[in-house]
């Protein structure tokens, strides 16, 4: 079906769950007003990014009042949102929820926690171990969190699992200034979202935050990419924004007829070779 | 084009946004800084005026009796162009009063004392005006340790600490810093006729090209030699970066507990902001 997606390019406050929840509720209300069917928030929208030792303090369980409140709001609009999840055995995950019709439709735990350069996620967080697509009223969707997207296998698995829409929640720090038009991180991401969409004949809905934490900027530039890899809407760079993009089923149908790479993708060959590689590595 | 060439419009946007957000998120709206008449502090005051509005920027011009009078004139010029608040606070009396006790002190001790005298004045003005102190040390100086610890290196926020001197020049052009300030030779202005490049023994452009490859691109010694840098120059600069590293770190704390500040008690400074 055709629908409108809203990409809420917000500026979360570091470690302030209540303030961020209020900010998110406001954006949800705006999405409803603007007639969007789905609103996407950035990675760790409820908490901010460079949490370090704050992780246990801001973590929420799936039955917390905050998550229940957001689930309640999803009766009016579907919501994809990032937060720190704590489990009953006290593991902390960088997680994203897809909420729809008042319920949790899917939970994704970030699989690839970057721990290099300015990143230190694996020091504080546990690794997710699942990549699964799920059914929604907008068709089958796969969700990834930021660094997940940089591992080819992750969007590939979701697409093979039937996802035709990939949602990526991000807190991407701006860096790599050169003489070029964009920051290095901006142009790298723009190549990635477009290429991923094109390879997998899938839409990519990318939501990145803005603001600064301890001098690190987050560059925004949230975008809706159609299954041919063309950007149909893009948020402002380095400024808050609320991006509305119209998603048309026809564009997906036509692209899948025009470039049927996913139809021709050979799971048998892929699995056979991966199993061989796995076996050879064992020796 | 040098690999140090940057998109100055984008850089401007990032640094102006940085000052605006980092000042306002702590519940303040003003900044204070020392204006020397040199290009680094001139650039920062232009960025701050754009970020906060000239009425929210307060500059202290703090000459010593041996400072070049041209420096104060240039500081006044920049402040006047922007319409920011400024005052001239001469540090001669306080510095000289101290060195009457230590008349044999060398130039380095005197220079450091002046830098720290200025720092105490800025932090006093920070309290007086509810304003954050803006730092004006660029990446070249910070990496070489060419600054005074707890003196000119002290600040609450440093907008230009990740850009090299060569990039300070580029951004200053973009911001419209007065030509006379951009074109003059960089000087710590501790005594008449002093220039940074004379004192350091190499030019900023030269060392920036090396530092960029060494630090940002992580080229190793062989790669730097292959790129045309003299081995002695590479070793000299590597040595400077290493021996000045203490200036870029907080004081070392002896660990005895399970949670030691900054080692296993880790929070961003923007915690709760």
Order of helices and strands of chain A, N to C? EHEHHEEEHEEHEHEEEEEEHHH
CATH class of chain A: Alpha Beta
Name the CATH homologous superfamily of the domain at 8-197 in chain B.
HUPs
Counting structural domains of chain A, the number is 1
Gap between N and C termini of chain A: 49 Å
Q: What oligomeric state do the depicted chains represent?
A: heterodimer
Count of helices of chain A?
A: 9
The radius of gyration computed from the alpha-carbon positions of chain B, rounded to a whole number of angstroms, is: 19 Å
Strand line-up in the sheet with most strands of chain A: 5-4-3-2-1-14
Q: What strand order characterises the main sheet of chain B? A: 3-2-1-4
**Share of helical residues of chain B:** 40-55%
Largest sheet composition of chain A: 6 strands, mixed
User: Remind me, CATH topology of chain A?
Assistant: Nitrilase/N-carbamoyl-D-aminoacid amidohydrolase
What this model shows, in words?
The complex is a heterodimer of chains A (283) and B (273). In chain A, 31% of the residues lie in helices and 28% in strands. Chain A is α/β, with parallel strands linked by helices and 283 residues long. Chain A has a single domain, classed as Carbon-nitrogen hydrolase (Nitrilase/N-carbamoyl-D-aminoacid amidohydrolase). In chain A, a hairpin with a 5-residue loop joins strand 3 (78-86) and strand 4 (92-100). Chain A is globular. The N and C termini of chain A lie far apart (49 Å). With 273 residues, chain B is α/β, with parallel strands linked by helices. Chain B has a domain at 8-197: HUPs (Rossmann fold), CATH 3.40.50.620. Chain B has 12 helices and 4 strands. Chain B has helices spanning 8-24, 39-52, 69-82, 92-99, 107-129, 139-144, 165-175, 179-183, 196-200, 204-216, 221-226, 231-243; strands at 30-34, 57-61, 85-88, 131-133. In chain B, helix 3 links the parallel strand 2 (57-61) and strand 3 (85-88). Chains A and B meet through strand 10 of A and helix 1 of B.
């Amino acid at each position: 079906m055709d629908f409108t997606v809203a990409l809420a390019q917000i500026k979360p406050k570091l470690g302030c769950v209540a303030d961020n929840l209020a900010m998110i509720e406001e954006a949800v209300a705006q999405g409803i007003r603007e007639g969007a069917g789905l609103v996407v928030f950035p990675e760790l929208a409820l908490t901010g990014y460079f949490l370090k030792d704050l992780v246990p303090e801001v973590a929420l369980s799936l039955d917390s009042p905050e998550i229940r409140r957001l689930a309640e709001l999803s009766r009016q609009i579907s919501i994809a949102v990032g937060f720190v999840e704590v489990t009953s055995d006290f593991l902390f995950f960088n997680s994203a929820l897809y909420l729809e019709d008042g319920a949790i439709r899917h939970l994704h735990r970030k699989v690839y926690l970057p721990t290099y350069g300015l990143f230190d996620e694996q020091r504080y967080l546990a690794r997710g171990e699942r990549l699964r697509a799920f059914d929604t009223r907008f068709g089958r969707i796969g969700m990834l969190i930021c660094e997940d997207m940089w591992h080819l296998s992750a969007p590939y698995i979701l697409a093979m699992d039937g996802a035709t829409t990939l949602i990526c929640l991000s807190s991407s720090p701006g860096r790599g200034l050169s003489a070029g038009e964009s920051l290095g991180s901006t142009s790298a991401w723009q190549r990635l979202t477009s290429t991923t969409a094109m390879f997998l004949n899938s839409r990519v809905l990318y939501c990145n935050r803005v603001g600064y934490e301890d001098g690190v900027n987050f560059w925004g530039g949230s975008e809706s990419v159609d299954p041919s890899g063309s950007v149909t809407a893009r948020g402002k760079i380095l400024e808050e924004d609320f991006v509305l993009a119209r998603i048309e089923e026809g564009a997906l149908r036509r692209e899948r007829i025009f470039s049927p790479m996913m139809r021709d993708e050979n799971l048998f060959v892929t699995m056979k070779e991966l199993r061989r590689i796995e076996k050879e590595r064992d020796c | 084009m040098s690999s140090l060439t940057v998109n100055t419009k984008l850089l401007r946007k990032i640094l102006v946004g940085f000052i605006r957000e980092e000042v306002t998120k702590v519940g303040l709206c003003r900044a204070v800084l020392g204006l020397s008449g040199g290009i680094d502090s001139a650039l920062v005051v232009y960025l701050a005026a754009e970020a906060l509005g000239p009425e929210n920027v307060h500059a202290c011009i703090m000459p010593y009796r041996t400072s070049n009078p041209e420096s104060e004139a240039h500081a006044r010029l920049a402040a006047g162009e922007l319409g920011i608040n400024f005052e001239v606070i001469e540090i001669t009396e306080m510095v000289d009063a101290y060195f009457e006790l230590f008349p044999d002190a060398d130039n380095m001790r005197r220079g450091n004392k002046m830098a720290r005298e200025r720092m105490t004045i800025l932090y006093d003005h920070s309290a007086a005006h509810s304003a954050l102190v803006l730092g004006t040390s660029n990446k070249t100086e910070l990496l070489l340790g060419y600054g005074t610890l707890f003196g000119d290196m002290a600040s609450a926020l440093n907008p230009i600490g990740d850009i090299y001197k060569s990039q300070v020049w580029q951004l200053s052009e973009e911001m419209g810093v007065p030509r006379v300030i951009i074109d003059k030779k960089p000087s710590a202005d501790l005594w008449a006729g002093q220039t940074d490049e004379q004192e350091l023994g190499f030019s900023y452009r030269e060392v920036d090209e090396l530092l960029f490859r060494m630090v940002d691109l992580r080229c190793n010694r062989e790669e730097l030699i292959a790129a045309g840098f003299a081995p002695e120059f590479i070793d000299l600069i590597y040595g400077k970066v290493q021996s000045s590293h203490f200036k870029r770190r907080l004081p070392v704390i002896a660990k005895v507990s399970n949670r030691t500040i900054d080692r296993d008690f880790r929070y961003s400074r923007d915690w709760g902001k």
